[in-house]
Amino acid sequence: MTPTDKLIKAFQNDPRVIRFKALEKEIEKHPTLLQAYEDLKLAQQAFVRAKSKKSASKDALKAAYESQLAALKDNPFIEEYLDLIEELNYDLQWTIGEIEDRINAVLNPDFKP
Predict the structure, then answer these.
(1) pLDDT score, position 71
(2) Are the beta carbons of 81 and 27 closer than 8 angstroms?
(3) Where are the domains of the chain?
(4) Which of 11, 14, 28, 51 has the least C-beta neighbours within 10 A?
(5) Residue 3: is it exposed, middle or buried by C-beta count within 10 angstroms (0-12/13-18/19+)?
């Protein structure tokens, strides 16, 4: 088994990933929840675009996003799902950073993370 396979298997066996997948299946069974989540992602994208362009509408878009997020978090399934997304994304970013640091250390012995 390659190191990549081991890493993938470790993530797949993580109880949070297993729970995330179960929640995802439940959310997909409820079109209203699924649509609300999709709308939230669109609102987030609009806000991020406006923020990066320093658009005058960024404050209104941020308020709309935060309002949709608060409404969705009233549902325990969605709240747990969103929390897991945040946790898992953090872990993935950390893992990527560790891999990059180790590669840089091998390629450049003077590298210090």
Answers:
(1) 92
(2) yes
(3) 15-104
(4) 28
(5) exposed
Task: Write out the two tokens for 50.
Answer: 């406006």
Per the CB < 8 A criterion, the answer to whether 72 and 82 are in contact is: yes
- Compute the chain's Rg from CA coordinates: 19
* pTM of the shown model: 0.78
Cα gap 58→61, rounded to integer Å: 5
Measure the CA–CA gap between 49 and 56, rounded to whole angstroms: 12
d(Cα 101, Cα 104) in Å, to the nearest integer?
5
Alpha helices by DSSP H, 1-113: 3-13, 15-28, 31-52, 58-72, 76-107
